């Protein structure tokens, strides 16, 4: 198996799914884009269902690693939450794409049950991470006006994913920035408050 071709296919399929949706491309489209035969794609991924499974597995692993990197680099809850917002914003590519979970959720009827379940697992992982971040925020005071960490996590993930859809519809990251402005201010104001009198 040619790993380079396999990785190229995964990268292309992910970019395309995130911009057009998983139903928005075929193996013929992928073959034409990178100059190979459709049979070569079937060699690596016998069916499109197989491709979707590999995409969400890879995305799950990548996002888990990114969250761990944020924890290692950022000591305060406010910094971690700001970094998460930045991760979601960078995934927009100027409003041309959405995160893979959002892209897959839109076309869930076309996906195998295992993939739908894996999307749920990814979202659960992010929810748990955000909840833990808000729990840290209660301890370190770096996020203002925290109510219930679990409820905060649900609201924040829904906001980030909804902001992705708004930005993609507009083909502009401005709606994302507007949607997350209050959340970013909660991190900044708490940080400023903590710095006062130190």
Which labels suit this protein?
Tetracycline Repressor, domain 2; mainly alpha; elongated; single chain; disordered C terminus; 198 residues
Structural class call reads mainly alpha
* Major sheet: none
Q: Based on the structure given, which CATH architecture of the domain at 55-186 is correct?
A: Orthogonal Bundle
Quaternary organisation of the protein chains: single chain
In the CATH hierarchy, the third-tier topology of the domain at 55-186 is known as Tetracycline Repressor, domain 2
Sketch the topology as an H/E string, one letter per element. HHHHHHHHH
Number of strands: 0
Q: Find the CATH superfamily of the domain at 55-186.
A: Tetracycline Repressor, domain 2
Terminal Cα separation, in Å? 59 Å
Strand content: under 5%
Helical percent range?
over 70%
Uncertain segments are 191-198
Determine the mean pLDDT: 92
General description of the model:
The protein is built from nine helices and no strands. The model is unreliable at 191-198 (pLDDT under 50). The longest helix has 28 residues, at 113-140. The chain has a domain at 55-186: Tetracycline Repressor, domain 2 (Orthogonal Bundle), CATH 1.10.357. The chain has 198 residues and is mainly α. It starts with a helix and ends with a helix.
């Amino acid at each position: 198996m040619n790993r380079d071709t396999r990785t190229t296919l995964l990268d292309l399929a992910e970019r395309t799914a995130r911009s057009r949706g998983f139903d928005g491309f075929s193996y013929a489209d992928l073959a034409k884009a990178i100059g190979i035969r459709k049979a070569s794609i079937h060699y690596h991924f016998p069916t499109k269902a197989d491709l979707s499974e590999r995409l969400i597995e890879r995305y799950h692993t990548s996002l888990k690693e990114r969250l761990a990197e944020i924890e290692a680099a950022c000591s305060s809850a406010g910094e971690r939450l700001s970094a998460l917002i930045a991760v979601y914003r960078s995934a927009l590519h100027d409003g041309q794409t959405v995160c893979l979970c959002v892209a897959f959720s839109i076309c869930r009827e076309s996906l195998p049950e295992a993939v739908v379940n894996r999307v749920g697992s990814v979202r659960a992982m992010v929810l748990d991470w955000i909840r833990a971040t808000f729990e840290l925020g209660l301890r370190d005071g770096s996020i203002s006006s925290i109510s219930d960490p679990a409820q905060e996590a649900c609201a924040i993930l829904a906001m980030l994913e909804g902001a992705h859809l708004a930005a993609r519809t507009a083909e502009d990251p401005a709606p994302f920035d507007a949607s997350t402005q209050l959340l970013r201010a909660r991190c900044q104001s708490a940080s400023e408050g903590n710095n006062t009198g130190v």
